[in-house]
Specification:
The structure is a homodimer of 589-residue chains. Chain A contains 19 helices and 28 strands. Chain A is an alpha+beta fold. In chain A, helix 2 crosses helix 15, helix 3 crosses helix 11 and helix 12 crosses helix 13.
Chain lengths: 589, 589
């Protein structure tokens, strides 16, 4: 059996592992070929669970917070990662055995010998390996020198093999590259957020933690662009008084409880925008069912901060294997936009209104309508209007080369304007707008890990089946996944008591009515009702609906709730709306 | 401006292209670095449009048809594609200029010279290139010999670079590899379907059709497993009398109109299961708004059939660039399961009940409880029960080697049973169950193409703005995307007539109520109402809601419908439910 760690408590994870695979949550990929570490398949239950978690995320970020959703390719040309710094810096330290050539992550070899080797510099790793006399764990031979191993999967585009590309290690970069387009789409309004949900890829040297560390994983990222010179962020009012548990990096050994407002005031969290996104993250985690007492925010130490981060807080959730990072909320400052702007030569700025106009020397573009008129006729006025809004320094360099200026009109038509129609002058004037490079706060969610956390906190094991007289009793512990109904993969089970006497017909009509309102419903006509309930409890289905002989007389059905085992009798015709009401009520309780 | 072909009608696509990019549907990726053919970014509107199309797909396949949804990695080890045949056969013919070394797809070079060069064999391509005297289109030099170019993106897993892997060219293979697990999860019931929605990757030699041919694309695939010896498929009743337009491969020059039932009876479509999925595909395409008169099904010629296909029909949709394949519905027979079973050594079969039991020699396993008892105590009975259900031939070979038999109990615990506790005997008995390899029908949907088709068929251009007295009139043609409201990226616009006098407060309360029921809503307080309507029409928002001065008195708002421009006055409190009702009514009209 492949190793699987949801958490390290074997009593919890052994039984849970078997349930998760057997019932179709997830399992290691490519098992028929022996499996490959770091890849997992999400089965029928896992796929729906993931979708439901992402749905809650979208309800918060896209629907409520008005983040713009984008969806960009995973395959990314090398030049983008040269700009972003990933080509140079996104790597782990590796050492190979000089005899058997097995590769190892250097910091993994030091676990148990030193504290937090994952924060060591290459020099510190080298020293610690030597001082502790670490040998190859496979064959006992000496280890070779440290190598820098880039964690991006490499491929190439096109038949020549000439265009090197990488699979994105995060979804963020495409958002930065599209910044100017997105800013225009947002009608040049600041601040605004952009979100992306999709796969990330990291070629981990030796992934060992099951679904907690994957080589191909699901992530949801938001990039919130804002003006760094505006310190106040009015929406923060909402979370100002929220109590959180913090581990600031000036005292990493103790957990402090305080409000987000206090943490900003004391300078522990660098800005209201960052703190706001910590609040948002916490309320998302609550909504998917992670108990607040098992959450904390830990600030990255300076040494573990990513190359782009000015400040970073992780939402950690307590699992049986310890506190695990689920979400990183980083202030990336203007780093990425500056890097891509330099790398591509494209300006990536926003505009801000100055509180007081200032005197400045300004390059102004004018259009000579006497030249434009005869050439462009009806379009001349529109072209002139576009022209004077264009970037003056760009136009100047085009004009200097004597090349025509390309103007695109709002109707999509493209026009070449001869250089003599473009007049450039320097004037002193009062300016009330200036350009700046926005800063970015990025909440980055590891969806697979959150799924594992949701499962572990929903999992309950009972020694005996609560179902009296059923044949379940001999099956060992009774297992329930107490998901919030919004998160549950299957919303209802529909069961005719017997598979005859007209009961299946009644049940199937109800089934079809439930499906019509979009509820994923499981139909089951075989085995004892107790066994059918048990099956639903194991996959976390909140409502089981039974059609019995009485249903033929009273046109009603029994709805059993997973968590309370309470049963209510409801007219069949009202069952769909009753289920929606019960789902809604769960949220509020 | 990068070339973009939604279709070839420039009058349609020029204006449409500019709208789609400007309004955030999609645009070529990595534009700031010059772009790379075959990659597109979906912007804020495109991402939501895609999600909504996939939502309709899931409502049909997952909710109604009970397909099991899975979600597996894109990175796939080489061995899987060795089994599936992709390593050997998933390629195009390539030729390079002997001077400038530019690579070309051989069949592309022959377009305009011969008919349907994409169906030519390598020999035929070679001959046609020679006979037509084709030279390098870039420099005029001679072309080199044909090379086979595999279309899968290659990468490697782990630090050694030793484990070659590819990005999946289709999502199907992981479903086949997981067949036995999924069959057990479905409680060994046949037939059943499995679905996957995700990215596919094909390293096209020279992608030239914009979003119609991408190197990284969105797909939704279903794999429907069934018993090939059961000819009837009762659910087919639903589509038996559906009229469809068919181009069968025995007469590829003419379109025939007939019912799906007739087509099966005449042997044009190979099975009811395949025809059922053609019916399902057609009703999906209707639901997302593709007009039925612009759809047809074309059967693959024997020469264009994929290496795994026994029969295949494409749903083609008419765009301004001609008839374009959107969905392929293939009968893959038992090909894939057989290939992976051979490649991995794992049995991949289902069980069928024989109508009459037959006499057969059967290998039977018995457990010696006298041996098991002392070793396993309380578990001995459970282990014995598991043991006799295991695969007899596998157990025999383990026993022959003298190795212990590994038994996993339902609670996840694993036990080593010594060989002497396992008794194997050959007996003659009546058997009423036999194993078989299921066949597969696969409907495979190209989501990006469907999105392009939906957009083109929703697009309407008017010479003049229908909005009287607005400043829109000078803006050139007036454009509307008439999406079905379920598909529309944004469902409502909310507009305070003026940004003062308490109107924004009323509008924002309504905004928040609309968001609470999950409706993506756009708030806009600036510019004339006409301009705000026009913006909503361009992105296909079905309902625009205005709060005016009267709203302060009568607590009502005006809902304007995109398609009819009809305006109704509704109490503000009823607006959310009214919008839902109007969305629902649209579907039925």
């Amino acid at each position: 059996m492949p190793s699987f760690e949801l958490g390290k408590d074997p009593a919890l994870t052994d039984g849970l592992y078997s349930l998760l695979k057997r019932r179709g949550f997830f399992w290691p990929s490519y098992e028929i070929y022996g499996g490959i570490a770091g890849f997992y398949d999400l089965g029928p239950m896992g796929s729906l669970l993931r979708e439901n978690i992402e749905k809650v995320w979208k309800d918060i970020f896209i629907v409520s917070e008005d983040y713009l959703l984008v969806d960009c390719p995973s395959i990314t040309p090398e030049i983008a990662f040269r700009s972003s710094g990933h080509l140079e810096k996104f790597s782990d330290q590796l050492t190979r055995c000089i005899d058997c050539h097995t590769p190892f992550r250097a910091d993994h070899l030091l676990e148990g010998y030193v504290d937090a080797p994952d924060l060591f510099s290459p020099q510190e790793l080298e020293t610690a390996l030597r001082e502790n006399g670490i040998k190859c764990p496979s064959c006992g031979s000496e280890l070779g020198p440290l190598e820098e191993f880039n964690l991006m999967f490499r491929t190439s585009i096109g038949p020549g093999g000439e265009k090197t590309a990488y699979l994105r290690p995060e979804t963020a970069q495409s958002i930065f590259m599209d910044f100017s387009l997105l800013y225009r789409m947002n009608r040049e309004r600041m601040p605004f957020g952009v979100a992306q949900i999709g796969k990330g890829f990291r070629n981990e040297i030796s992934p060992r933690q099951g679904i907690l560390r994957l080589r191909e994983f699901h992530m949801a990222e938001g990039e919130f662009f804002f003006d760094p010179e505006v310190p106040d962020f009015p929406p923060f009012e909402r979370f100002k008084d929220s109590n959180v548990r913090l581990i600031p990096n000036n005292d990493p050994s103790s957990t402090k409880e305080m409000t987000l407002g206090d943490a900003v005031e004391r300078g522990l969290i660098c800005s209201e925008v960052l703190a706001y996104h910590m609040g948002l993250t916490r309320s998302f985690a609550c909504e998917i069912g992670i108990p607040i007492e098992h959450m904390r925010f830990r600030q990255h130490l300076a040494s573990e901060m990513a190359h782009y981060a000015r400040d970073c807080w992780d939402l950690e959730v307590e699992l049986s294997s310890g506190w695990i990072e689920m979400v990183g909320i980083a202030d990336r400052s203007a780093y990425d936009l500056n890097q891509h702007s330099t790398g591509s030569g494209e300006e990536m700025t926003a505009k801000r209104l100055l509180s007081e106009p200032v005197q400045r020397s300004v390059t102004r573009i004018e259009a000579d309508l006497k030249v434009l008129g005869p050439i462009f006729r009806g379009n001349a006025g529109k072209i002139a209007r576009e022209l004077i809004c264009m970037d003056a320094s760009g136009i100047r360099s085009i004009k200097d080369k004597g090349e025509p200026v390309i103007v695109e009109l709002p109707d999509g038509s493209v026009h070449k304007v001869p250089t003599e129609a473009v007049i450039i002058s320097e004037v002193e004037e009062k300016v009330s707008i200036e350009k700046y490079t926005p800063h970015v706060v990025e909440p980055s969610f590891g969806i697979d890990r959150l799924m594992a956390a949701v499962i572990e906190h929903a999992y309950t094991e009972m020694e005996k089946s609560p179902l009296k007289g059923s044949d379940e009793e001999e099956m060992g512990p009774y297992r329930v996944l107490r998901f919030d109904p919004r998160i549950s993969p299957i919303k209802c089970g529909v069961f005719p008591l017997m598979n005859r006497d007209g009961l299946p017909e009644i049940a199937k009509t109800l089934l079809s009515d439930l499906k019509k309102i979009g509820l994923i419903t499981y139909y089951d006509h075989s085995g004892s009702i107790g066994r059918r309930y048990a099956r639903m409890d194991e996959i976390g289905t909140p409502f089981s609906i039974t059609i019995d002989y009485e249903s033929k007389e009273d046109h009603a059905a029994t709805i059993r709730s997973r968590d309370t085992a309470e049963q209510i009798r409801v007219p069949i015709i009202d069952v769909p709306s009753k289920v929606l009401e019960l789902m809604d009520r769960y949220k509020k309780e």
